[in-house]
């Protein structure tokens, strides 16, 4: 029974971590290197993550500076940013790429909050699916009725805990998006 519970908790932790990673890629009004985590650069014919071809730094709250490890990749990096879904306008000076992060409009902020809440709800569904899978496993296992009841109660407590954690992560992201 303990292994089942530990497995469920591990899967739920991974769900919350995946949500946090997903939220890192949502662009807010503040500069962040993590918004480029999903941007792939066509580098010598291979799609390569941007952080593997360039150093990304944040010298100011609304400025990102991207310095490629190989100067020949500068145009490829610029093209990757322009074609990404980030809606950013890179400035290439021949050595580095500078990106000014414009403040978000109120309408865009509301859209991003709606998107974040949708992603959060998908994570809640994942947690509930884990609960259902574990409860099915407990019902089919070689456990007494009392052990089954106790195990299912413990899994419900875990579910409640991680659903609450997801709510906290969503609230933090909403606050970050809405701040000016």
Structure at a glance:
The protein contains four helices and six strands. It has 180 residues and is an alpha+beta fold.
Report on this model:
With 180 residues, the protein is of the alpha+beta class. 57% of the residues lie in helices and 16% in strands. The protein has four helices and six strands. The strands form two sheets. A four-stranded antiparallel β-sheet has the order 3-4-6-5, covered by helices on one side. Strand 3 and strand 4 (63-68) form a beta hairpin. Helix 1 packs parallel to helix 4 (145-178) and helix 3 packs antiparallel against helix 4. The protein starts with a helix and ends with a helix. The mean pLDDT is 92.
Any key phrases for this structure?
two-stranded antiparallel ribbon; 4-stranded antiparallel beta sheet; elongated; alpha+beta; 180 residues; 4 helices; 57% helix
């Amino acid at each position: 029974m303990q292994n089942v519970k530990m497995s469920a908790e591990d899967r739920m932790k991974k769900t919350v971590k995946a949500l946090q990673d997903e939220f890192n890629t949502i662009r807010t009004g503040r500069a962040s290197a993590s918004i480029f985590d999903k941007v792939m650069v066509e580098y010598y014919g291979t799609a390569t993550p941007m952080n593997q071809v360039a150093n990304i730094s944040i010298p100011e709250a609304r400025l990102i500076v991207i310095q490629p490890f190989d100067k020949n990749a500068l145009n490829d990096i610029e093209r990757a940013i322009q074609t990404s879904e980030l809606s950013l306008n890179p400035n290439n000076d021949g050595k580095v790429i500078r990106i000014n992060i414009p403040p978000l409009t109120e309408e865009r902020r509301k859209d991003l909050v709606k998107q974040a809440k949708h992603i959060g709800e998908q994570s809640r569904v994942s947690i509930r699916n884990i609960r259902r899978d574990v409860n099915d496993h407990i019902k089919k296992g070689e456990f007494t009725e009392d052990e089954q009841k106790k195990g299912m109660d413990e899994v419900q407590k875990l579910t409640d805990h991680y659903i609450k954690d997801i709510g906290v992560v969503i609230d933090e992201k909403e606050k970050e998006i809405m701040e000016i």
